[in-house]
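Our consortium's second objective concerns turning raw sequence data into structural hypotheses that experimental partners can test. To show how far this objective has progressed, the report includes one record in full. It was chosen at random from the queue rather than selected for favorable results. The single chain below, 228 residues long, was entered without modification.
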Amino acid sequence: MAFESSLVFGMYSQIKHSLQGSAQGAGPQPQVIIPSAAFSGSIISFILCPSELVKCRMQIQGTDSVVPMSRRYGNPLDCVLTTVKNDGVRGIFRGGFTTLLRECIGNAVFFSVYEYVRYHMHLQLKSASTDHRNLIDVGVGIASGGLGGIAFWLAVLPLDVAKTIIQMTPDKNATRNPFQILSSIYRRAGLKGCYIGLGPTSVRAFPANAAAIVTWEFAIKLLGIKRD
């Protein structure tokens, strides 16, 4: 997560800066934010896909009814090696297309919400006392990051559900088309089925992304990097 976060925030900042050019300070620009965020998401999907496959496969080993003792992995490396042995290198990238979609769309939504909330909150609070500027910046970071995180998962949780099913299904011949999987879920359980796990995901998303944004903005300030 540390590597993934540093990569996505770093790439987003650099691409956004390059695309903005001399138009900095003109407020959020969707034609800059969306491609910057989507490209960053596409790159980190190649890291997230194998790491999440290993994480999910290790997590479902909690009960014998799910995974018999004879088929359990000893550790994450054993999971990787066993997957490569059984399915080839492509096996650890199972669900890669769905992860790519999730990260491109999700990050475009996240950074759009973050940038707009941040911009308009600072616009409303620009006349506030400079004595409380640091406190205001933290509050804006919490609100913009937390709301961005919630928006991310509201937009792409169905894709995450499909990704998990693709990665965990033992049948090698099962479909890897996320839209076919979601269509099947929708027929059986409706929209609620496509958003299974929304509660705990939302509970995690707000504080995790709020903390990430506050830390990121504090680091930018600490390093003396200029922001629009």
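The partners drew two points from this record. The chain has one domain: 2-222. The chain has seven helices and no strands. Both points have been shared with the crystallography group to help prioritize constructs.
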